[in-house]
Each structure stands twice: as C-alpha cells, then as structure tokens.
C-alpha cells in the first residue's frame, strides 16, 4: 500500500513538472494534485527533493552501472521522460537533484569497488569515484539537454573510456570493460 501511495504522489509530481519548474512547486501543490492530505505526503517523503530523489532512484533501480547496454537503456529512458529529468537538472535549489544523482552513483560505484576489492576503498579510489561521477552526471545532463544526435550507447562508451585506469581495473576486474 505504501509503495502505491508513493507512486501516486510521484505521478502527481510528474504532472506538475510538465506545468512548471521544480522551484515553483510546493508540497501544497503536490498534495492538491495527488488529492492527499499533507500528513500523507510527509509520511512518505521529507520534502519535494526527497520525492524527486525517490523518483530518480526508482528509475535507476535496475541499472547495472558497469554495463554499456544497461546504462544506455537508462539514459534512453531519461529521454522518454524528458520533462522530469530536464526539470531535475535545471533545479538550482539548496538541494539540487544533480547532487542526489551524484551521491546515488558514488554509492553504487563505491559499493561495487568494496565488493571487488574485498575492503573499503582507499581515499584515492573514493576520490576517483567521486570525480568520475561528477563527470558522468554532468555529461549526462549535457547530453540530455543539448545533444539530440549522439546515441546513448556512444555516450556511455565514452564515459567508460574516460574512467581513470586504476578505477576501471578495479571495477571491471574479472570481466571486459563495459560488458
């Protein structure tokens, strides 16, 4: 039941995002659009940014960040839900969505690195992961907002090729890069 309510609220948010940018949407607007009371919203989400982060995570839940095909599918799905991601990337509030996206991917790559190495990644590896994730989130934004030509698969392959060699060796240990 809780999952259905979250989906209901997220659908209301999507409808609002078509009409106006994130910074002009208030929890009251979301509640009105979803036909729910404010306590219901706050039972599920801390604020509209938490809702947006949840919506983003739902979209990326089954993405294998080490697979060109899976990552390209996720990027293509961003294009199919262009308004949501456009509004998310345009947001420049105190909790911008790109920061949620960055944190999400840093955690994904850090967890994979820890699993592959059998220990918590060292400071240099964590720095490389953060740097790589800043770059990929930024390049994904640029691709989504400005590039209507380059296929997602090409962008993902270029991202993997740009990964620091030490990080690539760790993350793709035991497999071919981007497979």
Please give a structural write-up.
The N and C termini lie far apart (37 Å). This protein has helices at residues 2-19, 27-34, 38-44, 48-60, 68-80, 82-90, 97-117, 123-146, 152-162, 165-171. It has a domain at 48-171: Tetracycline Repressor, domain 2 (Orthogonal Bundle), CATH 1.10.357. Helix 1 (2-19) crosses helix 2 and helix 5 (68-80) packs across helix 6 (82-90). It has 179 residues and is mainly α. It has 10 helices and no strands. The model has no long low-confidence stretch (mean pLDDT 90).
Q: Provide the CATH architecture of the domain at 48-171.
A: Orthogonal Bundle
User: Structural class, please?
Assistant: mainly alpha
Helix percentage: over 70%
Kindly report the average pLDDT value: 90
The number of distinct β-strands equals 0
CATH class of the domain at 48-171: Mainly Alpha
Q: What is the count of helical runs?
A: 10
Q: How is the CATH topology of the domain at 48-171 named?
A: Tetracycline Repressor, domain 2
User: Major sheet: size, sense and barrel closure?
Assistant: none
Radius of gyration: 18 Å
Low-confidence residue ranges: none
Beta-strand residue percentage: under 5%
Helix and strand run: HHHHHHHHHH
CATH superfamily of the domain at 48-171: Tetracycline Repressor, domain 2
The termini sit apart by: 37 Å
């Amino acid at each position: 039941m809780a999952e259905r309510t979250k989906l209901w609220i997220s659908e209301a948010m999507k409808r609002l995002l078509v009409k106006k940018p994130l910074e002009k949407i208030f929890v009251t607007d979301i509640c009105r659009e979803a036909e729910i009371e404010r306590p219901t919203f706050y039972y599920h989400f801390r604020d509209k940014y938490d809702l947006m982060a949840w919506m983003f995570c739902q979209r990326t839940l089954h993405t294998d960040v080490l697979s060109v095909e899976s990552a390209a599918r996720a990027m293509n799905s961003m294009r199919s839900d262009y308004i949501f991601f456009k509004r998310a990337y345009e947001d420049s509030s105190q909790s911008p969505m790109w920061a949620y996206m960055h944190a999400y991917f840093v955690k994904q790559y850090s967890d994979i690195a820890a699993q592959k190495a059998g220990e918590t990644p060292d400071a240099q590896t964590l720095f490389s992961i953060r740097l790589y994730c800043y770059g990929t989130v930024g390049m994904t934004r640029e691709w989504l907002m400005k590039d209507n030509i380059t296929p997602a698969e090409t962008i993902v392959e270029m991202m993997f090729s740009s990964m620091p060699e030490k990080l690539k060796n760790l993350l793709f240990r035991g497999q071919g890069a981007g497979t």
